[in-house]
């Protein structure tokens, strides 16, 4: 093989542990860059396996190659640039069926692919058992098991990359089939794409662009070289819809999910069925269309009650500590000597710092409670529940997570909006996030509420303060989506 640097694209869904794998492979030898016009990062790093030099490109976390989000556009642009020798597709082992949808699309690029089933320890704890030999056969790609956080499986991963890189003809992944009529349309459009394809896109197979034309992908259909094929692609889409009763994009997605479901049914088994049934039973209630929102409001009320009730004790202790400290200094300070310095120390430093630190228990307890809800998986279910509710105010379901983060801090909340595909929805969410009561306001609330309300009403008033902020934010979103950012809402 030649001596050029071997280039690997690291692809996977968000939160699959992809960046952990990237860090394990590259260590600190990495470079972060942004593509023009987008805020999504693309990272690259170098590593060596024996005497072999490798560049690893960590693509943003994506669910598909549909070009519908900033992350997907960055990933597609990197693939379009070419020179990728291997795709390292990282899969969350505990959510394989969802993660493998991206795998079926990456297969269309006709590049050697290595599947990395990450977080395998969590999957086994959940009672999942894998027949990796069968899975490898279904997708036409070797599989390595890893735990990125501990480094488990990294030696096997490096060895497998080294083996594939030195193969004369590396194995290619299996491409899904989409039914007789659709496959016929793909073959016909592939021939037409090959005739008009520009040199800069020839590193991506013509079949990939043919599939995107059939899916009516807006980015691909907007490329000038494919303008002459749009009429032909539309005819094929109509023929597929007439034959199957559903549009080509939905049909092809169904076939991909069918392949994945069949593979998972054959190669993945669940021994911890009781735990799965318990989880499904809980989901029936917390994601119920009628009970979901009331349960969410009750959970938030319990969080605030926990914050105030439990936090009252350490708050009293801190007040006593700083009070005793100030009184102690006053008692030993020589009368009439350096009064300015005494006032600065007792009233300024001890009184000022103590007046702020006394509210630290409330802040810590609030964040602990939210972290607990995230750890149990409730927050993900809350986002699902809130999607329909958010649409009533013109917002996308994904707007819920940034707005929820706004309870902690508005800065990371605004940064989190980059996952929202629609620019109108993204800007609307950014503009209403400041109405959410962030952690910096909690000391103010904690100072004012006890001064005006009895202890038994304090949790309720705190809850109302947060609810009022949410109501104003949603009202502002509805106003913005009805005027400045008017337009069709995006699907969850």
Write the layout of secondary structure elements.
Elements: E1 6-12, H1 18-26, E2 30-34, E3 41-49, E4 52-58, H2 70-81, E5 86-92, H3 96-106, E6 113-118, H4 120-125, E7 128-130, H5 132-139, E8 143-145, H6 154-165, H7 180-196, H8 206-214, H9 218-221, H10 230-244, H11 248-267, E9 268-270, H12 273-286, H13 292-332, H14 339-357, H15 360-375, H16 378-391, H17 400-405, H18 410-416, H19 423-432, H20 442-452, H21 455-482
Helix pairs in contact: 3-11, 5-11, 7-8, 7-10, 13-14, 13-15, 13-21, 19-21, 20-21
Key traits:
492 residues; alpha/beta; Rossmann fold; Helix Hairpins; seven-stranded mixed β-sheet; two-stranded antiparallel sheet; 21 helices; 9 strands; 10% strand
How does this structure look, described?
It is a single chain. By secondary structure, the protein is of the alpha/beta class. The chain folds into three domains: about 5-165, P-loop containing nucleotide triphosphate hydrolases (Rossmann fold), CATH 3.40.50.300; about 180-270, Helix Hairpins, CATH 1.10.287; about 290-480, no CATH class. About 60% of the residues lie in helices and about 10% in strands. The protein contains 21 helices and nine strands. The strands form two sheets. The protein has a seven-stranded mixed sheet with strand order 2-3-4-1-5-6-8, with helices on both faces. A hairpin with a 6-residue loop joins strand 2 and strand 3 (about 40-50). Helix 3 packs across helix 11 (about 250-265) and helix 13 crosses helix 21 (about 455-480). The longest helix is centred in the middle third of the chain and has 41 residues, at about 290-330. The protein is elongated and about 95 Å long. The model is unreliable at about 30-40 (pLDDT under 50).
